[in-house]
Amino acid sequence: MRPIVLPLPGNEALAASLEGDLGPLTVRRFPDGETYLRFDSPVRGRCVVLACTLDRPDEKLVRVILASATARDLGADRVLLVAPYVPYLRQDERFHPGECVSARVVADLLSTAADRIVTVDPHLHRLPSLPPAFDVVRSAPLISAWIASHVSNPVLIGPDEESRQWVSEVAGLCGAPYFILRKTRLGDREVRIEFPSDASWTGRTPVLVDDIISTGRTMISTVKHLRKLGTRPPVCIGVHAILADSAYADLQSAGADRIVTCNTIRHPSNGIDVAPSIAERLAALTA
Ligand code: R5P
Fold first, then answer.
1. Residue pair 51/6 in contact by the 8 Å Cβ criterion
2. CB atoms near residue 214 (< 10 Å)
3. Cα–Cα 20 to 30 A to 163, which of 11, 23, 27, 48?
4. Cα separation of 162 and 49, whole Å?
5. What phi and psi, each to the nearest 5 degrees, are found at residue 280?
6. Element (H, E) at 37
7. Judging by beta carbons within 10 Å of its beta carbon (0-12, 13-18, 19+), is residue 32 exposed, middle or buried?
8. Which atom of ligand 1 is nearest to the CA of 215?
């Protein structure tokens, strides 16, 4: 039997791109701010797919937990979660005494809530992997295809050591040179970027590639530095477009020629469509 696909609010387009019978889910807020949630079609014996990307996550996480527990309570055979962006993964270590290592807490929470979670390039750095329930779609082939068809003579730039994993893959796929910068984070909204002395971009267009653009400070510092060096205007590519507050406008003002992101989080910068890859992975899980 085909799965039943249920979008959490704001995820209707994502749900529509997935194979299955679209089902309605009523979600609203009680006057006290708590969530009311109701399944409007039977799920007994069905494979239930919840579609919910998890940027700005605190309210969404509660909805996902309530929806998955209710699906199981109503007799669903399996509950799968399609969450193209998984949050909280950057706090993957106790940097200061007493801190919550939210990466582990949230990864464990989601893998208990759903039988499988399909996501795109989760931020893995000090945490080497996620629990086995996670099924990861890689965006590198799509990003490299975009670069190959939109940028002539690219040179790829990864802003920090953890970006090496995807920048090197993207560079290999599109046959471009790359180098990795050294980043020191000085605070939530402050970073210091250092360029390698042997970096060369003569005749090339710098293409910054990072997994998450949040405050945009990492990319803004890099773009400003490149502009001072007199390079061609850089292209900025992010997998997950959090782009908090004025980050998008700030990055444009800093001198980025073009800002392109994957549509794991809906944003005007979305230009790389990961939906078919997600749908394909989900179809393999529900076959
Ligand atoms: C962290 O290491 C990530 O890979 C990104 O580099 C980071 O999240 C970017 O953050 P922001 O846009 O706030 O500088």
1. yes
2. 20
3. 11
4. 31
5. -65, -45
6. strand 35-39
7. exposed
8. 13
Per the structure block, which two tokens stand in for 240? 């997950």
- Closest atom of ligand 1 to CA, residue 242: 12
Closest protein CA for atom 7 of ligand 1: 212
Two tokens at 247? 């980050």
CB proximity list for 190: less than 8 A, separation 6 or greater? 217
CA of 178 to the centre of ligand 1 (A): 18
Alpha carbon distance 113, 80 (integer Å): 9
Q: Is 92 in the pocket of ligand 1 (CB under 6 A)?
A: no
Q: 183 CA to middle of ligand 1, Å?
A: 10
Given ligand 1 and candidates 90, 163, 218, which is best to mutate, with the most ligand atoms within 8 Å of its CB?
218
Closest atom of ligand 1 relative to the 211 alpha carbon: 4
CA distance 12 to 6: 8
**Which residue minimizes the CA distance to atom 5 of ligand 1?**
212
Q: Residue whose CA is closest, atom 10 of ligand 1?
A: 214
Spell out the per-residue pLDDT of the chain, length 287, in tens: 899 999 999 999 999 999 999 999 999 999 999 999 999 999 999 999 999 999 999 999 999 999 999 999 999 999 999 999 999 999 999 999 999 999 999 999 999 999 999 999 999 999 999 999 999 999 999 999 999 999 999 999 999 998 998 899 999 999 999 999 999 999 988 999 999 888 888 899 999 999 999 999 999 999 999 999 999 999 999 999 999 999 999 999 999 999 999 999 999 999 999 999 999 999 999 99
